[in-house]
From TrEMBL:
Official protein name in the record: Lysyl oxidase homolog
Sequence similarity: Belongs to the lysyl oxidase family.
Enzymatic reactions: L-lysyl-[protein] + O2 + H2O = (S)-2-amino-6-oxohexanoyl-[protein] + H2O2 + NH4(+)
Secretion signal span: 1-21
GO terms for cellular component: extracellular space; membrane
Gene that encodes it: loxl3a
Domain SRCR span(s) in chain numbering: 33-134, 159-266, 287-387, 397-505
Gene Ontology molecular function: copper ion binding; protein-lysine 6-oxidase activity
Enzyme Commission designation: 1.4.3.13
Subcellular location, record wording: Secreted, Extracellular space
Cofactor: Cu cation
Role of this protein: Mediates the post-translational oxidative deamination of lysine residues on target proteins leading to the formation of deaminated lysine (allysine).
Amino acid sequence: MCRPEYVVVMLACLWLPSTLCQTSSPQHEQLKFRLAGYPRKHNEGRVEVFYSGEWGTICDDDFTLSNAHVLCRHLGFVEALSWSHSAKYGAGTGEIWLDNVMCSGSETSIDKCLSRGWGNSDCTHEEDAGVICKDERLPGFLDSNIIEMQVDENRMEKVRLRPLSAAHAARMPVTEGVVEVKYKEGWSQICNVGWTARNSRVVCGMMGFPSERIQAKKPNSHRSVYRIHSVACSGNEAHLSACTMEFSTNTSSACPGGGPVVVSCVPGPQFSNGRGRKSKLNHVSKVRLKGGAKAGEGRVEVLKGSEWGTVCDDLWNLQSASVVCRELGFGTAKEALTGARMGQGMGPIHMNEVQCVGDEKSLLKCPHKSITAENCKHMEDASVKCNIPYMGFEKTIRLTGGRTQLEGRVELLAPNASSLEQWGLICGDGWTSREAMVACRQLGLGHASSGLSETWYWDSSNVTEMVMSGVKCRGDEMTLSDCQHHHVVSCKRAGAQFSAGVICSDSASDLVLNAPLVEKSVYIEDRPLHLLYCAAEENCLSKSAVRANWPYGHRRLLRFSSEIHNVGRADFRPRLGRHSWVWHECHRHYHSMDIFTHYDLLDLNGTKVADGHKASFCLEDTDCHEGISKRYECANFGEQGITVGCWDTYRHDIDCQWIDITDVKPGNYILQVVLNPNFEVAESDFTNNAMRCNCKYDGNRIWLHKCHIGDSYSEEAEKQFELYPGQLNNKIS
């Protein structure tokens, strides 16, 4: 009996030209798809297909929305919104793999649709098809929202600097050398006839350096192979392949009157030889990166006035991203990312439709539009991944004993080691997820998922000597040696089983408190003691409560609501599994974390005058942004956590959601709330875990103002905040 799909094909062949009935699919080959072109956002672009070892395009002949639906699903989006013809996103290069494609829209792959067959086309690249996909991801698709340089690997697979001597090669980073280009047959040089400083600027940007030196040394004489001649760059290109140049098909081509190109680059302050990797930029930058796993990547934030804010991704491209990278002491942008790929910000959105030429000294100098609430949301925050110099940091650290390459006991190459075999351990005392963040960054393995202070179950190495102890990191260092640590190793617990370990991940959560809600919901309650027995059992009252005349009298409580958002790229989960949660009979709930939040009231000298804490007795999704489903619910011993794009609300009227201020005198104070204070759970950014408010207490009423996330103000504004003189009246301007 004939299968229905074959009947359709046979009937179609009665009226379609026979060339449109070739529906054979590639055998034993995994098709790959990507969006390319400019200008575009992450969910739109020219469709490119990787087939038979080469990227190519699709012709727009007979193209329909049904075709676009199939292609958008390939790309990880739920469906298509529209499609484009006539190379709207620019003409592609290479093969035109498909032509006269005709899909019904329900196909699981583009090769199930009718077409002329692979590589059979009568089109030019001026007819390349594009799609606009609905910005909603299919489950399981993580890689998205990336705008990167599409390099024709047949012309230029890789670019490198070959050091001029062994002495140059021994110093990191390599800032000067012969420019070599890799292609299929090997490495070749570029003829330096007509070479300009603008060309050098492009090469230095690719190598991770913000600028070039005018004078470069000549290489030692040796026989060179020149494949590229007459390079002409504007200086603003993100990649050498975007410049005009001539290719020689003769691999033994000479360079009359010249020699190989040599460039000399100026490293950024973080990578300068002899200045130390901890050095900062010479000026106070008004641009920063947040939420990235590695140096030179993150969500772009700019300082306007006294407050940091994000950049909307409309028209975001490699030129604008490169301005950010160079401003921060890195090279050009490797990727321009859209759709909050490095997590969402929480403050204002300062810029939209940024259109840099590429030679601007600061992103704020680029043409752009200001923002209204209707223009952009934080789900459209722009991010970058910058080219950074190769430093070889990963050669001095390794993981052993883990089940995968992403986990294990951390071993460091011993200081002054004369052999690569002299490895040692890190003492696990005080090791937290902040130190694990730096270890995973140095390894090049992304974010930290866990930092472990005991690794007895990863005992597979004969390395037993401790070579580092007392490690204390901020979390943004590039290597563990940049962190504070003991000059002389001192470890309280001997034995390799008490050495530090990590589990790394490509994504991490990021918790941020809704500061305006705290300011809006604050009030004072005089709560009778007979209603506070459970709270006392959980240590939610100040120490003087034990001397109170129970059950008579009351305690004065500073109450407020907390709304804790997960703006990261992974769900926030308790460190311990359900089998380790502690049941509290009085409140009749499980605590998945002993301390989830610290509440502190500080005087203007920073001395703590009252405090409180919150155990995570119900870590769940209270609500979520549109299109995101709740995953965690505490009822019936359910799983606890906070989903990406959701938030957990602790209302002002639940137990322990307070600070006991019974013993506090009237005056001016600072209210401080710190999430995940012991760094029990890894996050992509710990600098935004604290919130602070100016606080005035007159003995009967309380006012909060200037509530803000710890790193959301400029340094100057933060200093003014700490000099808070109190309010002259009860009106808050």
